[in-house]
Design goal:
alpha+beta, five-stranded mixed β-sheet, 10 helices, globular, disordered N terminus
Length: 555
C-alpha cells in the first residue's frame, strides 16, 4: 500500500505578508519578507514617447496571415496515440491523492526544497535537467535530509488526479539562494546546480506533468510544470498552457513582474522585475495559477475521456503552424501575456477557419517579448509596461498593452471582448442561449469569487461583427476604492462569434471558469447549479469545436 502524500494547507507564514496591486488589468499576490531591504539598482533610462497609431480594424485583421515558424517544426517523437488514448490512460493506477488533497494542496511557497527545469516543453527521448537546492520561504531552518524527485502526469485516473511515471533516488541538496541582478530590470534567478536529470521515455503518455520535490516524509515541497508534446494531430483539440503568464506572476526571491519588496514591508511596484526569468522555481501567484487553471481543466476533460493534446505558449510562439493541425485551439484560465507573434497567430488561426475556445479571462492583455538566458533561448520574459521605459521601441516588441494607443491592436479582434474588471464578483444572467448549447435558458452563472478577472464587449473598430452574448452581468468591486476612481461599473460577459472564415470562437470571459470544472478547485466554489452549467457548456463547446469551421452550423 502506498503512503499518502502530505499536502500543505494554504496559510500565511509568520513574518510574511501578502500584498496586492492592480496594474492595468492584472493583479498579483506576493509573499514578501517584511524585513526585505530596498536595494539600489541601475536607474531606468527613459526616452521619448512613441507615436499613437490608429486602431487596427476588424477589416484590417482579416488580412493577417500566419507568422512563419521561427525554426523548422520538429514533431513529437512520442509513439502514435490511439483514438482512445485518454480512456486507456485513465485505466492505469493513479497516485494516492483524493479530491480533498488536491483542493488543499498549497504550492505557493517552496518549503524545504525547490527546483526548476531547463525546459518547459519536450517530447519522448528528451533529457530534462533538474536544478534544485534547499530553500524555504519562511525563517525556519531547512533540514538537509535527502530529497526525492518525481514526475506526475496530471489526468483523471479514477479520481486520483495524477499518475507517477518516474521517481529519482534520494539526493542531498545544498542551500540555495535567490540572486537579484543590479541591472535596472531587477530580475531574480536561482543559478543552482543540476542535481539530476531524467529522460522522457516512450512509455510517458503525452500531456501535462508536474515535476515534484518531496521531503523525507513524502511532503510536496515544490513543483515545476512540464508539457510532453503529442505527435501533432493526435487529437482534434490542442490546449495551450500559459507558461509565460505563470512566470510573470512568479514571485520567487521576493520579486515578480508586478511587485517587489518596498520600504517597511510595503509592496512597491517600482521594485518589480522588468524581466521574469524561467531560471528559478515557481512559487506565489504563478504556482497558484497552475493549481487554479491548468490542473482542474485537465482533470475534468480527461475524466470525460476527451482527447486533448498539450502545447505550451512558448511552442505556439516558436511554431505558429501548430494551430493549423487542429480543429480548435483551447486556452484556459488566465492567458494574460502574449508575444506579438502569438497574437497574430490567433488572429490568423480564426482567419483560416481554426476554431478557438477560451475558458478564461484577461486574455492577451499584455504584449511581451522573449530573450535568451545563460541556459538557453526564450528563458527571459521582458515586461516594462511603459513605452518610455522599454529600450526596444519596435511596435512588435515593446512591452505594453495590446490595446495601448501606441500599438492599438485590442484583444477583442479575436475574442470579441476586452478586460473590464479585476477582482470583481457577481452574477451573470442568460441573454440569448442558442439551442446548440443544450442548457436551460433561465439558469444564471452566480457566485463569481472576488478573485475574478472579467471581460465584456467593447464597441470599437476592432470588434468583430455579430458578437453573440450568452451571459451578462454587472459586477461589484472587491475593493470599494475602485468605485471612487472608476465610475463605470465592471461588466462580465460570455460570448461566441462565427467568423467569415467559418471558424467559431467561444469566450468565457472570466478567469475563474476553468477552476470550477473540478471539485478540487482551489478557488471559492460557485453554487452547484452554476458549476453544473459551466461544465455542461464546456463539454458542448469542446464537442462541437472538434468540427473544423463549425461556425456556420451554429446559427
Amino acid at each position: 500500500m502506498k503512503l499518502p502524500y502530505t499536502v500543505r494547507a494554504a496559510a500565511i507564514v509568520s513574518g510574511i505578508v501578502i500584498a496586492c496591486l492592480v496594474i492595468g488589468g492584472a493583479t498579483s499576490y506576493l509573499f514578501l519578507q517584511k524585513s526585505a531591504p530596498v536595494e539600489k539598482f541601475a536607474p531606468l533610462k527613459k526616452h521619448a514617447d512613441l507615436p499613437f497609431h490608429a486602431m487596427e480594424t476588424f477589416a484590417d485583421s482579416q488580412k493577417i496571415t500566419l507568422p512563419a515558424d521561427q525554426t523548422p517544426f520538429v514533431n513529437s517523437t512520442c509513439p502514435a496515440l490511439s483514438p482512445t488514448w485518454v480512456k486507456d490512460e485513465n485505466a492505469k493506477p493513479g497516485v494516492n491523492m483524493t479530491t480533498a488533497d488536491w483542493k488543499n494542496l498549497d504550492l505557493s511557497a517552496a518549503e524545504g526544497s525547490a527546483l526548476w527545469l531547463n525546459q518547459t516543453s519536450v517530447s519522448c527521448g528528451s533529457q530534462v535537467k533538474i536544478h534544485a537546492a534547499l530553500y524555504s520561504s519562511n525563517s525556519k531552518p531547512t533540514s538537509n535530509v535527502p530529497r526525492v524527485f518525481a514526475a506526475w502526469r496530471i489526468g483523471y485516473y479514477g479520481g486520483a488526479g495524477a499518475r507517477e511515471v518516474w521517481r529519482s533516488s534520494a539526493f542531498k541538496l545544498k542551500k540555495g539562494v535567490a540572486t537579484t541582478s543590479k541591472e535596472a530590470t531587477r530580475y531574480t534567478e536561482a543559478n543552482w546546480p543540476v542535481v539530476t536529470s531524467f529522460t522522457v521515455g516512450k512509455d510517458w503518455t503525452p500531456g501535462f506533468y508536474l515535476i515534484i520535490s518531496f521531503s523525507a516524509f513524502g511532503q510536496i515541497e515544490n513543483v515545476a510544470p512540464l508539457v510532453v508534446r503529442s505527435p501533432v494531430g493526435s487529437s482534434k483539440l490542442v490546449m495551450m498552457q500559459s507558461f509565460m503568464t505563470w512566470q510573470m506572476y512568479n514571485s520567487f526571491g521576493g520579486r515578480s513582474a508586478y511587485l517587489g519588496p518596498g520600504k517597511d514591508g510595503n509592496s512597491d511596484s517600482d521594485e518589480r522585475s522588468r524581466l521574469a526569468s524561467f531560471d528559478r522555481p515557481m512559487v506565489g501567484s504563478g504556482a497558484y495559477a497552475i493549481q487554479r487553471d491548468a490542473i482542474p481543466f485537465i482533470q475534468f476533460v480527461e475524466s470525460k475521456g476527451l482527447n486533448v493534446d498539450e502545447e505550451s505558449d512558448l511552442d505556439i510562439n516558436q511554431w505558429p503552424s501548430i494551430t493549423t493541425k487542429y480543429a480548435a485551439v483551447i486556452v484556459g484560465g488566465h492567458a494574460e501575456y502574449y508575444t506579438n507573434r502569438m497574437f497574430n497567430t490567433f488572429v490568423a488561426a480564426r482567419n483560416s477557419g481554426t476554431n478557438i475556445a477560451i475558458f478564461g479571462g484577461n486574455t492577451s492583455y499584455w504584449q511581451t517579448r522573449l530573450e535568451s538566458s545563460r541556459y538557453g533561448p526564450d528563458r527571459h520574459l521582458i515586461m516594462y509596461r511603459y513605452a518610455t521605459d522599454d529600450p526596444n521601441t519596435n511596435l512588435t516588441q515593446v512591452t505594453i498593452e495590446f490595446s495601448n494607443e501606441r500599438l492599438n491592436t485590442p484583444p477583442n479582434l479575436v475574442s470579441g471582448e476586452q478586460t473590464s474588471g479585476v477582482h470583481v464578483y457577481g452574477t451573470l444572467k442568460p441573454v440569448k442561449i442558442p439551442l446548440w448549447l443544450h442548457v436551460t435558458k433561465t439558469t444564471p452563472i452566480s457566485g463569481l469569487s472576488s478573485d475574478s478577472e472579467v471581460e465584456a464587449t467593447t464597441p470599437n473598430a476592432a470588434e468583430p461583427p455579430n458578437v453573440h452574448i450568452l451571459y451578462s452581468g454587472v459586477m461589484s468591486w472587491r475593493d470599494p476604492k475602485h468605485d471612487q476612481s472608476i465610475k463605470k461599473a465592471p461588466i462580465a460577459q460570455v460570448d461566441w462569434i462565427a467568423f467569415p472564415s467559418g471558424s467559431a470562437v467561444f469566450n468565457a470571459g472570466m478567469s475563474t471558469w476553468s477552476c470550477q470544472l473540478s471539485d478540487a478547485c482551489v478557488d471559492l466554489p460557485f453554487p452547484i447549479a452554476s458549476q453544473e452549467l459551466i461544465r455542461s457548456i464546456t463539454l458542448q463547446v469542446l464537442d462541437l469545436w472538434q468540427v473544423p469551421k463549425v461556425g456556420p452550423s451554429l446559427h
